[in-house]
Description:
Layout: E1 5-7, E2 9-11, E3 14-16, E4 21-26, E5 31-37, H1 41-55, H2 64-80, H3 82-93, H4 97-121, E6 126-130, E7 136-145, E8 148-152, H5 158-171, E9 175-179, H6 186-197, E10 205-207, H7 216-221, E11 228-232, H8 235-247, E12 251-255, E13 260-264, H9 270-282, E14 292-298, H10 302-314, H11 334-349, E15 353-356, E16 376-379, H12 386-389, E17 396-402, H13 405-413, E18 417-418, E19 420-424, H14 428-435, E20 442-445, E21 460-461, E22 464-465, H15 470-476, E23 478-486
Parallel strand pairs: 1-5, 8-9, 8-11, 9-10, 11-12, 13-14, 13-19, 14-17, 16-17, 19-20
Antiparallel strand pairs: 2-3, 4-5, 6-7, 7-23, 12-22, 15-16, 18-21
Helix pairs in contact: 2-4, 2-6, 3-4, 4-5, 9-10
Bound molecules: nicotinamide-adenine-dinucleotide.
Nicotinamide-adenine-dinucleotide binds near residues 152, 156, 218, 289 and 459.
Amino acid sequence: MASVQLLRCFIDGQWVETDRRFSNVNPVNGEVFAQVCEADAATVQRAIQAANRACSGPWKKFSAVERAAALRRIADGIEQRFEAFVQAEVMDTGRPVHQARSLDVARGIANFRTFADLITTASGDMFESAAPDGAKVINYVTRKPLGTIGIISPWNLPLLLLTWKVAPALAMGNCVVVKPSEETPSSATLLAEVIQEAGLPHGVFNLVHGFGPDSAGQYLSTSPDIDAITFTGESRTGTTIMKAAAEGVKEVSFELGGKNAAVVFADADFDAAITGVMRSSFTNSGQVCLCSERVYVERPIFDRFVKELKRRTERLVVGYPDTKDVDMGPLVSLQHRDKVLSYYQLAKDEGATVVAGGGVPVFGDERDMGAYVQPTILTGLPDTARCMREEIFGPICHISPFDTEEEVIRRTNDSAYGLACSIWTTHLSRAHRVASQIQTGIVWVNTWFTRDLRTPFGGAKLSGLGREGGRYSLDFYSEISTICIKL
Ligand code: NAD
């Protein structure tokens, strides 16, 4: 068993211990491996005040080039402690080590470098016009920092999603108070160490640990002293935070839940589609907001597709995160496993046919105390079933047949969510035609999860509000103002 660490808050450049602690549990075997200092209301307020002071301190004088250099030092710092970050992500979540290396930590570094590049190359609008007396007028658009940003993040891709917001917020000259998920406090704590070593002025980056309601998340999001909130998590939580933000008319950016579809046409490259749907359904044990829980397959290839997906799913290696060739680790927690298993049961109650999985794997060792579930494929549910409409957030997909393009567009869009969709086809016109009618923030054709960090990212309907990524992040994390000068 790993020794029990103490994870502290980081406020105004100092490590802060609090009296209330909660346990950080390894989902592989249920063992406690760290204690985490929970921030009470006064501690969160201290962090916010530190950030507010830092907004008007030396940080304010940093030029874009200097802020970009600070971001690059942070990226370098993560890179130098690459394996420590990998270990932190793996201990908190149980994800495969190879995934933590190739995705989570790699993207954490890329987020800082991308926004360092963007901030030094960003240009602004400039318009020339005339005043009523005919004199020439120039108008140019500037971006100022918003101030103190509250950043609240989830557990599913802890470092990736946190840095996706911290990097642009700092790039635009803001100060931040971050509240990572209570399930995954480790990589955020390491990030605070890296930021401390990178020499940012005290108070620019503050970290508070804790839960949501009646804890650090609520204290942060309801504080009148922050200037904006950016949140990634469940749609329900987004609603609660939005109500709190409404009070002070605060800017909000929300990246919320999904119930995404994969659409496979009969003309698709069959192997590519199978490989793509395996990834989009089971990556990170299905705990990615972009995962496809609804798969629609054109009827002529439906039976063959189900048979092959079953064969490939039953060969997935579920096990220890550091096992060679492991495909899936556990879910993030026993509590989340119970939620996912309740949907496995609900699917059966709703009349689904279980094609693969549907239960928990038995290992005969300590992993039986962990949060493992089997990757699961279902068929036979109507689109009205709860399992077809609610986000499950586990390694599960339901496959339905369809007959026409119009039908599958309608069924894909028949969802309260609108985050992502992947289409598998070799028909060029169809790809464009269908993609343009799907009501989601992103549509992939013949790929899944591929992201250019300069493109806008976000969701329609219950899946979010606003867009981040590239200049869209620069827009959100700044107060845009126009300066109009009569010459
Ligand atoms: P969650 O909403 O339960 O928690 C997210 C964060 O909010 C945590 O830090 C939590 O402590 C905090 N929180 C909870 N209640 C709060 C409250 N009342 N006030 C303030 N803070 C509160 O979400 P989760 O279970 O951690 O994450 C999974 C969800 O995140 C899924 O719905 C998934 O689809 C979504 N997600 C969306 C995206 C996206 O980009 N759209 C990305 C990743 C995850």
